[in-house]
Amino acid sequence: MIIEPFLLKPVLMEKIWGGRRLETVIGKKLPPGKFGESWEASTHHNGISTIASGSLEGTKLDKAIAMNLKEMLGTRIIERGYKTLPVLIKFIDASDKLSVQVHPDDAYAKEHENDRGKTEMWYILYSEPNAQLIYGLQEGTNRSVLESAISGGTTGAIEKLLRYVDIKKGDVLLVPAGTVHAILGGVVLLEIQESSDSTYRLYDWKRLGFDGKPRPLHMEKALEVINFDFRENVMRIRGEKQPFGLVSTLVKSPYFTVKRYNIDKNYKIKENQEDRFNILIVTEGSGIMKWQTDDPAQGGLKYGSIPYKKGNTFFIPPVCTKLRIKPAENSEFIDVFLD
Would you tell me how many other CB atoms lie within 10 Å of the CB of residue 143? Predict the structure, then answer.
């Protein structure tokens, strides 16, 4: 029986817009290069995480799930039609601005990309002063206006149609499929998304890729999937006081629920079996994670513990219960699951 939390080893990805803040801000050990993404929990074929602790250490996460489907995902998730991890979680260091892009919804992605759609959310972990993101289009921008800006080819024509929003550490943004968006320079964030890599670039700032050539754009597909009516705002969510610290629900969507725990005292972060997995990402602090599971097949109660620190991501199987956080310092956990 799979009863223990598993530390995950991420997949690091070099990006033309990346830098070194995954090391300085998050605590990742980086080889030389410009790294923009750390895929923390993923079974997507473009980057698969590896289990880095416990009885399945060294096993790719997709293989571990395939071999232990019910024990790793839980019946509630399987009944929804998932046979692999339905979410993809990553840290992003945008030392330079990303392309202006949009993601398709599930139906369009299935038909055109043989992939899932991509609704995502961002939790801001670091930002330089006066940092901004692109979050939708200016009011009054419709398809014909955007097409005219694209076809005109005037430098800055598209940029004038973009909606810029101010952000700072702790902000939350839900980015539904169809939303024009871009992470701009000087930002480190946690991204939680559907397990998909379907992205349509609309504009790339006249930039060249690692090969010295312009990166490809996907104008026609982008125009087909854009939601021109998107008008959501940046969220700053205050936590509710609890004996252990604070708890907040950051996002609740059909694709994932995201909660934040700020813990300064011992706290049982998972008490009972809920027949679904959890993924815990440590965004601040360090300490010990302890668990207890009743496994009659293996002689009754089983106990265990594992240290945690900032930048760690843990996969929590459904049967792993009475999961207790014992912080050595004030700690922040992001909990990701499907309701």
Answer: 11
pLDDT, tens only, 80-101: 999 999 999 999 999 999 999 9
116 SS3 class: coil
pTM: 0.95
Which has the closest alpha carbon to 280: 173, 190, 210?
Answer: 190
Q: How many residues does the chain have?
A: 339
- The string over 12-51, giving b where at least 16 C-beta atoms fall within 10 Å of a residue's C-beta and e elsewhere, is bbebbbbbebbeebbebebeeebbbbbbbbbbbeebbbbb
For residues 25 and 123, give the distance between their C-alpha atoms in angstroms, rounded to a whole number. 14
What are the beta bridge partners of residue 88?
A: 193
Whether the Cβ atoms of residue 217 and residue 204 lie closer than 8 Å to each other: yes
Q: For 6-225, which CATH superfamily applies?
A: Jelly Rolls (2.60.120.10)
Question: pLDDT tens across 44-83, in order?
Answer: 999 999 999 999 999 999 999 999 999 999 999 999 999 9
Active site residue 201: yes
Indicate which residue of 20, 76, 163, 201 is catalytic. 201
> In the 3-class helix/strand/coil scheme, how is 158-185 assigned residue by residue?
CHHHEEEEECCCCCEEEECCCCCEEECC
CA 82 to chain centre: 18
Fold of 240-337: Jelly Rolls (2.60.120)
